[in-house]
C-alpha cells in the first residue's frame, strides 16, 4: 500500500464544534468587513452572484454564496506523474511531502558555502527529489539569480519539468508567466485536454493579508479555473502583524480569506480543484523573523487541516523546514517535529521540505534528512496489526519459558519489517570508527553527491524539449521588448 495512503494515528487541534465556531466567525468577517478584490473580472463575477460591492472593489460575501462554493468544490484532487500515472490522492488524511519554492540562497553540497541560487541548482535539486522515495512532489526550491528576474519563474518551471516525472506545484510572477508555464506543461503531457484530465501541475498563490486579493493573484486563479486546473490558495497572515496575535482570531481571518478565494474560483468555473492552504507564522518580536520551525506554525497548520477536513477540502501544509542556518541539531529537531505533526494532523500536500534560515536558504542535505524523517515517522505512526499471525500465540507456546525465537520461521518472515535507513547509524562504536566516524551530516552529503552523480530522470522526447525551450525563449524575448 502507498505509505501516504496507509492508515496512521491521528491528532486533532480543533474539534468539530470549534471548527463550526471558526466557520461562523469567518462568515461574519466576510459579510461584515469584506475583502478588497483588485480585479475587474473577479468583482464582476461576485456582483453577478449577489455579493455586496462598495467603494469599487470592497466585496462583502453573503453566507449562502460561501456555502454554495464549498458545496461544489471537489473533495478530492488527484495529481499525476508527467506520464499520466495518478499518484497523489489529495483527500481525507492522505499525506504527501514536497519541497518549497523560491529560496534566494542555497548551501552548496560541494563547497559548503551559502551562495545565491542558480538555475543549475534547481535542476540538481529536482533531480535529487526525483530519486527520493518519500518526496512525492516538487516546488522550485531556489529563486534563481542567473536569469532575468522577469522570467525567472518560467526558467524555474523548465528546470523542474525536465528533471522529474513527479507532480509539480509552481509559482508564477503574473498571468503571462502562468500562461507560459501551463503551455509548457501541456506540451509535456500531450495537450490541454490531457493536462486537464490528468494534471501534473498546480499553481500556488497567496492572498495579501489582511483581507486583500491583488490583481496578479486573481488573474492567475481565474486562468487556472478556466483551464479547470488545481489552485492552491494560500493565506498567510502573521500573528500580531497582519493578523491578530491570538490563534483563534488569526485562524478565523485566514479561513475567511481561503473561503473567499474558493468562491471566486468556483464562480469562474464550478468544480475547479481547490486546495485549502494556511501559512500562519508567529512573528518573533525579538528578531522580526518569520520562523519556520516555531511550534505555533505547526499548531496553526494542524488547525487548518482540521478545518479543511471539516469542509471536505484537500489541504496544504508545512514540514521539513527550520530556522537553523546550517544542517545542525536544531534543523534535525525542527524538521522531524514538523513532519510528525503533519502526518498526525493529516495535511495532504506538505511543502517546504529542505528549507533553512526561515525560508531564505535551501539545502539538499536537509531534503535528504527530511526524506529519512518522513519514512521514520510513517513507521512510527503506523497502526499495529493484531490478528492470529501477529499475536503468535502458538509460537509463544512452542518456545515456552526460557526459549529462543531467533531461529524460528516466524522471525525470519517478519524481521525485515523493522525500519532501517542507510542514513541512520546503528553499528557499535568500533565498527562506526572503522567506517570513518561519519556524522549523519557527512553521510547525507555523501548520499546527495552519489545521487546527483548517478541518477538520471526519465527524459522527455527531444521534440517536446525543443518546444518547451522555445516557450522559454519566447518569454525571454517578450521581457526585453
Structure characterization notes:
With 481 residues, the chain is an alpha/beta fold. It has 2 domains: 325 residues, Trimethylamine methyltransferase-like (TIM Barrel); 30 residues, no CATH class. The protein contains 18 helices and 17 strands. The strands form 4 sheets. The protein has a 7-stranded parallel beta sheet. A 4-stranded mixed beta sheet has the order 2-3-1-11. A 4-stranded mixed beta sheet has the order 8-7-17-16. Helix 4 runs parallel beside helix 5, helix 8 crosses helix 9 and helix 11 crosses helix 12. The longest helix is centred in the middle third of the chain and has 22 residues. The protein is globular, with a radius of gyration of 24 Å. The chain starts with 15 loop residues before the first helix and ends with a helix. The model has no long low-confidence stretch (mean pLDDT 96).
Amino acid at each position: 500500500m502507498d505509505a501516504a495512503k496507509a492508515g496512521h494515528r491521528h491528532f486533532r487541534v480543533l474539534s468539530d464544534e470549534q471548527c463550526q465556531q471558526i466557520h461562523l466567525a469567518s462568515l461574519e468577517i466576510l459579510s461584515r468587513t469584506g475583502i478588497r478584490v483588485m480585479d475587474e473580472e473577479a468583482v464582476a463575477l461576485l456582483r453577478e452572484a449577489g455579493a455586496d460591492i462598495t467603494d469599487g472593489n470592497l466585496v462583502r460575501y453573503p453566507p449562502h454564496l460561501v456555502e454554495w462554493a464549498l458545496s461544489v468544490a471537489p473533495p478530492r484532487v488527484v495529481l499525476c506523474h508527467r506520464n499520466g500515472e495518478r499518484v497523489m490522492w489529495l483527500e481525507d488524511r492522505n499525506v504527501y511531502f514536497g519541497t518549497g519554492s523560491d529560496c534566494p540562497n542555497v548551501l552548496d553540497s560541494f563547497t559548503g558555502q551559502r551562495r545565491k541560487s542558480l538555475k543549475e541548482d534547481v535542476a540538481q535539486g529536482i533531480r535529487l527529489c526525483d530519486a527520493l522515495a518519500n518526496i512525492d512532489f516538487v516546488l522550485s526550491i531556489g529563486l534563481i539569480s542567473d536569469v532575468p528576474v522577469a522570467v525567472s519563474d518560467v526558467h524555474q518551471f523548465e528546470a523542474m519539468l525536465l528533471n522529474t516525472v513527479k507532480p509539480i506545484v509552481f509559482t508564477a510572477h503574473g498571468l503571462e508567466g502562468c500562461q507560459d508555464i501551463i503551455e509548457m506543461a501541456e506540451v509535456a503531457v500531450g495537450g490541454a485536454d490531457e493536462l486537464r484530465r490528468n494534471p501534473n501541475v498546480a499553481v500556488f498563490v497567496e492572498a495579501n493579508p489582511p483581507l486583500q486579493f491583488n490583481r496578479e493573484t486573481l488573474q492567475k486563479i481565474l486562468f487556472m479555473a478556466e483551464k479547470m486546473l488545481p489552485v492552491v490558495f494560500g493565506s498567510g497572515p502573521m500573528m500580531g502583524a497582519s493578523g491578530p496575535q491570538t490563534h483563534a482570531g488569526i485562524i478565523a481571518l485566514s479561513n475567511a480569506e481561503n473561503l473567499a478565494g474558493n468562491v471566486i474560483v468556483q464562480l469562474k468555473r464550478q468544480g475547479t480543484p481547490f486546495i485549502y492552504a494556511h501559512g500562519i507564522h508567529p512573528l518573533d518580536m525579538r528578531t522580526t523573523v518569520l520562523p519556520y520551525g516555531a511550534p505555533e506554525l505547526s499548531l496553526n497548520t494542524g488547525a487548518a487541516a482540521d478545518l479543511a477536513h471539516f469542509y471536505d477540502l484537500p489541504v496544504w501544509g508545512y514540514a521539513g523546514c527550520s530556522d537553523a542556518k546550517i544542517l545542525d541539531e536544531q534543523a534535525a529537531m525542527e524538521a522531524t517535529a514538523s513532519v510528525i505533526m503533519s502526518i498526525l494532523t493529516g495535511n495532504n500536500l506538505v511543502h517546504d521540505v529542505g528549507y533553512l534560515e526561515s525560508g531564505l536558504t535551501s539545502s539538499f542535505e536537509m531534503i535528504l534528512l527530511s526524506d529519512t524523517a518522513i519514512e521514520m515517522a510513517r513507521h512510527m505512526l503506523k497502526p499495529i496489526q493484531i490478528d492470529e499471525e501477529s499475536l503468535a500465540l502458538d509460537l509463544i507456546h512452542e518456545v515456552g519459558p526460557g526459549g529462543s525465537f531467533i531461529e524460528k520461521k516466524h522471525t525470519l518472515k517478519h524481521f525485515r519489517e523493522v525500519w532501517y535507513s542507510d542514513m541512520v547509524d546503528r553499528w557499535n562504536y568500533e565498527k562506526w570508527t572503522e567506517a570513518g566516524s561519519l556524522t549523519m551530516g557527512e553521510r547525507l552529503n555523501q548520499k546527495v553527491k552519489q545521487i546527483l552523480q548517478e541518477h538520471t530522470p526519465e527524459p522527455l522526447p527531444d521534440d517536446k524539449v525543443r518546444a518547451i525551450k522555445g516557450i522559454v525563449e519566447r518569454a525571454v524575448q517578450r521581457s526585453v521588448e
